[in-house]
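TA notes. Do not distribute before section.
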Amino acid sequence: MIQNKLRGAGTALVTPFDADGRIDYAGLARMVDYVIDGGTDYIVALGTTAETPTLYLHERAVVAMSIANQIRGRVPLVIGVGGNSTSEVLDQMREFDLRAAAAILSVVPYYNKPSQEGMYQHFKVVAQNSPVPVILYNIPGRTGVNMTAETTLRLADEFPNIIGIKEASGNIEQIQTIIDRRRNGFLVLSGDDDLTLEMMRRGGEGVISVATNAFPQRYIECVRHAQNGNFATAFNAYRHLEEAIKALFAEGNPVGVKCALSVMGIIEPHVRLPLLKGTATLGETFKSLIEKYDLK
């Protein structure tokens, strides 16, 4: 089952830009190699961390293709296919070359604030039209609306090709309900780096991570301990990352992670408006934390 390949730590890959706001494809290739060398289990293209809403449709297609070509089959690829219009999501599925994708990651429609039935009908259409398995993505802090455990479980029960959810609601009770009542094989993946170990302790399978862009080896070490049931060791190892992970989100995502990557000399810190690159203060914070905890 493809679910077995999407456990552990996946990386929600950034999209590097140059100073003029153009996609830095050389930097994108470096990022792919960096996170694979760091031990990531799979890569997620065109998620939140990729600044996908600022990418034109043709740019998204080229970014996905470039990542697939650079991966060269070394790890599975999940491609973000989502939006606030169901018909637009169908257009993306037609536009993107999904032959290299193990699955798509599809976010709850944003801005429109659909009802639970509207979310169900949206993902019903996505599931019925997707040529590859579907991972749901619930992130109410960005979409403006929460998909309840009941809606998630209804979709999981009725559509076998919906194989999991990236849960970034931060609602542990809701997540626990999904874990307890899901069908066999349905993945529950953390969307919050700081909640991953607790979610895995409660029965979740892993994370789609921002932090693994910057600190893959150290963060994945924590996840590996959790996968092996060594939670005390996992939480202890995480203590040395906690300050740095908080800093990743201090000025928003992906502003923080691009700032950290710039400090480490991997890519430039540039983001597209309306985001602004990390402040000098944030850069100094990362320099200090990377040295203090030997995170490079």
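Switch to the second chain here.
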Amino acid sequence: MATTNKRARLDPALFDLPVEKMRAGWYSDAYFNHARATLLQDGRHPHVVMQVFQKKHAWLGGMDEAIAILKLCSHGYDGLEIRALHDGDEISPYEPVMHIEGDYTTFAHLETAYLGTLARRTLITTNVVHVLQAANGKPLIFMPARFDHHRVQAGDGYAAYVAGRIVGAEIGVTSDEQASWWGGSGIGTVPHALIGAYGGDTVLAAQKFAEWAPADMNVTVLVDFENDSVNTALAVAAALGDRLWGVRLDTSESLVDRSLVGELGDFKPTGVNERLVWKTREALDAAGYERVRIVVSGGFTVDKIRQFEDAGVPVDAYGVGSSLIRGSNDFTADIVMTDGKPSAKFGRHLRDGSRLEPVE
């Protein structure tokens, strides 16, 4: 049996839900509100079993948040019986992840909200698991915050954190909001904007950043500002010495780094490619900077990371952004029993929920 600590759920209060609006059906597809109003006018309170599932092989995210929606925003949670899987559980196509049993009118208005939550968070958790598996346990910097609305950050960051627990790999997120549900904090490198603010002088910006940075911060510097990553990496390493933790390669997919101009012909030279990483690693090692790590970012996907790992490219950590929030992992909810009798629509039925655990 799993330990209590391992199976603990997040406190519903953590999610800071707009409870009154949710309870009023503000976030619901109108037809659920209309269905509830119809039942209430008719005086009908059907006792139903609602079964929630999705159609892919995935890793579950958003369950604690979905439960919080039901706990805080239903009209009579005490009358409901809920059984559910946990965030991070590996799930199969059509496998029930949650059963909700009780008076349908008490929770009919919440279907849109809890399904949308499960869909979004499961997508993130599953995408991050795939990337971490491809990266062979190397650390991941979760970097999609700038590509989406700020209100999704906390839940997405936690979904990424759950994926890290699944794989047993280190996850870093780039904003404090993304880390807020587990008590972490955002991490970050010396950005292009700071380099620009110092007139394009990467070394000067790195020095000033290092002077400001807390002693326990791993100082990592972007080295592609002048499109001369190898030489910039060496210059930064010489200037910062032991204070430098790593350099980050982030060359645009539309550019060829200067160090590769004389080697064109037998590989794709644009962006952060295998040869650029090797040249940077070899140059740092030759100059005595073997301990300086190399972080790569810019257009990295599961497939690109897998190619790098299969080729043994000397990357120490991957920064991945927009690809982690792309795709879909849609959930469905069906009433499969009503007043003790089967009532599923054609093609659906009450599925085995033996893995589901009671929700207190």
